[in-house]
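Dear Dr. H.,

I hope your travels went smoothly. While you were away I took the liberty of generating a structure for the chain from your last submission, since the lab meeting agenda had it listed for discussion. I wanted you to have the full record in hand beforehand rather than looking at slides cold. The sequence, exactly as received, is reproduced here:
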Amino acid sequence: MNKRLKAAIAGLAFVAGCEVGIALQLAKMIRDYALKEKALSEPLEVSEEEIVVS
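The corresponding predicted structure, in token form, is as follows:
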């Protein structure tokens, strides 16, 4: 393998690694957003014992 081919393969591997990192961050952000939306859409159930009047 010559140096140009090795450099090209190394560059492609670097770009692929970056893409995987971006995809993982995006998946994490989507998961966090979905959890927040689910929490906001569910009604909050509070018993009378939990209510503190000051």
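Two observations you may find useful: The chain is about 70% helix and 0% strand. The helical segments are 3-41.

With kind regards,
E. W.
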